[in-house]
Amino acid sequence: MTANMIIVGMADLKVVKSPGSLTTLGLGSCVGIALYDAKEKIAGLAHIMLPDSKQIQNNSNVAKFADTAMAKLIKDMEKLGARRINMKAKIAGGAQMFAFNASNDNLRIGDRNIEACINLLKKNNIPLIAKETGENYGRTVELYADDGRFVIKSVGRGIKTV
Asked: What is the rounded CA–CA span in Å between residue 152 and residue 116?
């Protein structure tokens, strides 16, 4: 972790210009959405908890949901000078942290978060160039605005850079 690393909390999002960097801790069923504009060296990271704000009554925190977080992340990056046409995406998380023997969709929150993120990226014409999702373990991620590196750390699984 670098000295100028900004922490993105759960149900939170932040954007930075190079040489800044962002990190979010403890992605279980949550998904970390990393957007990066290589030309302008601007990065954004959201730590989303749920796929869709329209399914929940108390949805005032836009960073909590994939649909509203994605829109705000793009808007905040554009305010710093990023262009959507230059943005690329990487995602991590969406784990199934507990074993459930049920077909109830509400218990598949990790899968639903991943699906929502992928669909929203397609809708916004932002290519998904890397993902480290699913399985049954948590992740911590770091996103570097200087070169778009997305570092994924998992206990017992080492460090992966995409």
From this structure: 21
Burial 31-54 (b: 16+ CB within 10 A, else e): bbbbbbbeebbbbbbbbbbbbebe
Does the active-site annotation cover 117? no
Q: Which residues make Cβ contacts (< 8 Å) with residue 91, sequence separation at least 6?
A: 31, 32, 33, 34, 114, 117, 118, 128, 130, 131, 132, 133
Distance CA 100, CA 108 (A): 9
Write down the residue that tokens 């759960």 correspond to: 10
Residue 70 has a CB neighbour count (10 Å cut-off) of 26
Give the tens place of pLDDT for each residue, 27-84: 999 999 999 999 999 999 999 999 999 877 777 899 999 999 999 999 999 999 999 9
Contacts of 109 (CB under 8 A, 6+ apart): 29, 50, 51
Which residue is catalytic, options 13, 22, 27, 30? 30
Q: Is the pTM of this model over 0.90?
A: yes
* Rg (the chain; Cα; Å): 15
- Residue 104 pLDDT exceeds 60: no
